[in-house]
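Quick entry between incubations.
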Amino acid sequence: MRQFDATILINREISPSWRVLGLAWSKEAGPPKPGQFFTFRPKALEPGDAGLLRRPLAFAAFAGAAAFALYQVRGSGTKALAAASEGSALDVIGPLGKEFPLPLDDEKPSLLGGGIGIGPLLFLHTALSAMNRPFDTSPSLLLGFRSKAFLPEFSTALEASPALTSDGQAGLEALSESLSLAKIATDDGSRGYAGTVMDALGAEPAAGIGSGAPRPHYYACGPGPMLAALDALARAEGVAAHLSVEQWMACGVGACYGCVLPSAKGGYLRACADGPVFAAGAIRWKE
Amino acid sequence: MEPDLSVTIGPLTLPNPVGVASGTFGYGQEYGELVDIDMLGALYTKAVTLEPREGNPPPRLTETPQGLINSIGLANPGLDAFLREKLPYLQTLACSVIVNVAGSTEDDYIAVVEGLESALGLGSPSGRSGIDGYEINVSCPNVAHGGMSFGTDPLLVERLTARLRRLTSRALIVKLSPNVTDIAEVAKAAEGGGADAVSCINTLVGMAIDTERCRPLIARGTGGLSGPAIRPVGVACTWKVSRAVSIPVIGLGGISSANDALEYFLAGAVAIQVGTALFADPRAPLAILDGIREWMRKKGVARTKDIAALLDW
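Done. Structure below.
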């Protein structure tokens, strides 16, 4: 973990209201792993408009010396980030938090992403694909969007950035490649399965529990209800699942206890330091 | 001439006037990879209570214009776990360590300081006790008085300070709440009870409401407002308090630059703490220290405690 000024390699729209951010990543900071995140300090757009808090973003890809994140322009922090020009510096701290643990050799990693939560799953998919696991334990990826218009377009961003470093290009290509291998679900049925990611998962042929086929190991990031449903499913099936959560944060390093979630064991867990990746059964989701 | 940045707080000499405020810096280790902690003047730990506290339900944080409302609820592992898990790291630090102490009853505060004093009696292999003083958080609700905070009643503050004074010869600092009618009265009570210094100020009670969902943005409704929004309040309180007592005043509230810190010094503080600004930039405290040193050189001020006398008014 380091704090440093990262040069912005790319900062472009990839779908309505979604953007891809590429940063020249410091070697001293160490390589980010899927599930980990960084925080950035938004610069004021208007005098007095500077947010006091850094914003966390999950890594979506890492290639050589370039790190990527996907973000949605939602509030003042992400609005300020969207206005940051390529070539300018961004104050970042990372890598932070716990990564997704690797699946066991006999587990089939089943990766599920919803909305802007797809970033860490694209990253995990790239990492698992590079491990050349046998076919029946190779990763599957299922991503959910509101509508096909919201599917990210990495190729356009790549074409529009001829000056991008080779690491930068490799990162965008990895994002694009993982996305192309994903099964898609859309809320309105305009692409792929009509329904949510959890609906699509339920509609898939049974993973073959008891039939000798590998047990699934679920990995997910997305809206709270999706994570809660997957948590319940994994526990019902008696299989492993790791879920990445999103929370407002202040320090991002485990000091302030501002970003907590209720623990299933009582008390609270810090999204930043105990997570953001939690095993199924760790979080007490909202009823 | 190189300015002398050291500050005397009762029996304690801080190497420089810039500390990190309680609740924003954990127990140090969390920031160990990001901040050269040994360069700080003081580390004020997250509050320690007698028993472990889970803290309040989330959401615990919300941003407001130039402010941050928090309602963490003094989440901390309790005295025993602090001694076992947090103190060993604090003992490795070169900067002064001030343990922030909180409780629901007078006896809670007594038990924490007693417990720490008896543990420190055993000493540590490095020769550093790991604790140079105590900062008493009197903004906690007092269960014996219907949840009214200790810090609102000068008599309670004086009695609590006096009881703690008998337990320790380490620096004893009372952290004042601004949520009172007359903060100078409470500061005098702390001085009367034998405090070596007062910290001025804790957070202001604040509330923010989501108008879409029609509910507060903090689960507990209200929380403590910090950040630049409260700086003028902190500076005014520091000014009032420093004229009411003869013990040192440690200023805090919304300091994010050397200029902000110097406002506090000119108002009468001899040391400052940086809190919320750390969240935006962990480098802030040491940048502020550099800026203070630079300003003192430029103005030809020899010692930090001489800055207050420059207020031309």
